[in-house]
Design the sequence.
């Protein structure tokens, strides 16, 4: 059972990101303020859910949330500032877009750059513990998946409709055959080092 809040006094926003470990595409983040009585039997960490369950939950979260916002930072900026900073920047952008500013922020993970003077708590595996972080993880994941699905139309060899930019065998085989796209993160190791020389 997910917890409804971390503390009771202040309005809380949950934050999470999707796409940190991908070789291509932006990192997406979401910020969600839920009513304290929000419940849904499917709600959980987005990584524990089937895509069909995430698709059921997204409109429910968007309808029932007090407010929510989604933002992204593209691969060019990821290469400039690094993926960790880009993830925090995407979270900050999502928080800025909220119609109501939170008084407290719950963040999935163990690190975060302070958002102005708003207090925050970092929760390791928070998307499996707190409803607002789980909701943010679902929005970030579904919006990012949709984006990668659109890119797949232009770059079908890479299988982004299935792997969403993560380093699968199909993705890496396509990189070897077709090379990088403008959406690949050049600061990432796109292919493993050669283990043996081709003689």
Sequence:
């Amino acid at each position: 059972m997910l917890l409804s809040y971390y503390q009771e006094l202040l309005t809380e926003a949950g934050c999470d990101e999707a796409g940190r470990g991908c070789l291509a595409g932006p990192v997406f983040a979401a910020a969600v303020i839920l009513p304290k009585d929000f419940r849904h039997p499917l709600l959980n960490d987005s990584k524990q859910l089937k895509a069909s369950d995430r698709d059921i939950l997204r409109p429910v979260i968007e309808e029932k949330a007090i407010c929510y916002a989604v933002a992204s930072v593209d691969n060019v900026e990821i290469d400039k500032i690094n993926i960790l900073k880009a993830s925090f920047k995407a979270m900050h952008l999502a928080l800025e877009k909220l119609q109501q500013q939170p008084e407290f922020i719950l963040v999935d993970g163990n690190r975060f750059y302070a958002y102005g003077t708003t207090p925050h708590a970092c929760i390791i595996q928070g998307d499996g513990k707190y409803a607002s972080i789980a909701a943010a993880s679902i929005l970030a994941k579904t919006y990012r998946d949709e984006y990668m699905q659109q890119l797949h139309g232009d770059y079908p060899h890479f299988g982004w409709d299935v792997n969403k930019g993560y380093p699968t065998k199909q993705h890496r085989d396509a990189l070897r055959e077709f090379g990088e796209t403008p959406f690949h993160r050049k600061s990432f190791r796109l292919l493993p080092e050669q283990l043996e020389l081709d003689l």
